[in-house]
Amino acid sequence: MREENIQALFIIIDDPEKLEQVLEVLLECEIRGATIMETQGMAKVLSSHIPIFFSLRDLANKQHQHNRTVFAISRHPEKIEQAMEKLSAMFHNFEEACTGMMFVLPVTKAVGLGRKLL
């Protein structure tokens, strides 16, 4: 098995209404087969269960109930970089509180990556 430079791009967005725009950017960058999960941030969960985090309740209630986490794997680091640049511009580098974040992780092995549709 030959070594490849496979990367996984993770994008967490607080506003589910921006999901379609994120997916369009991935398609523009030729990144296909993304997976979307409905997720919830730690502050949202803790604010309703642990007294020390009650002060976070107001902040958490202003946010959407659930985030969207999108991840995609690519053998082409340049496409990941291009997507990150476009998404950074779209979300103003995620500098505003509670907008989300993104990161890349190396994938040491992958099975089923790049299958052709029948």
What does it look like?
This protein has a four-stranded antiparallel beta sheet, covered by helices on one side. The longest helix has 14 residues, at 77-90. It contains four helices and four strands. The chain is globular, with a radius of gyration of 17 Å. By secondary structure, the chain is an alpha+beta fold. 31% of the residues lie in helices and 25% in strands. The mean pLDDT is 84. The relative contact order is 0.28. It has a domain at 6-39 and 66-107: Alpha-Beta Plaits.
- List the strand order in the largest sheet: 2-3-1-4
The strand count comes to 4
Shape: globular
Instruction: Please give the largest β-sheet.
Output: 4 strands, antiparallel
The ordered H/E elements are: EHEHHEHE
**Radius of gyration, in angstroms, nearest whole number:** 17 Å
Number of helices: 4
CATH C-level label of the domain at 6-39 and 66-107: Alpha Beta
**SS-based class:** alpha+beta
User: Uncertain spans, ≥5 residues at pLDDT below 50?
Assistant: none
Q: Secondary-structure blueprint of this entry?
A:
Blueprint: E1 6-13, H1 19-28, E2 35-39, H2 42-47, H3 56-62, E3 67-74, H4 77-90, E4 100-107
Antiparallel strand pairs: 1-3, 1-4, 2-3
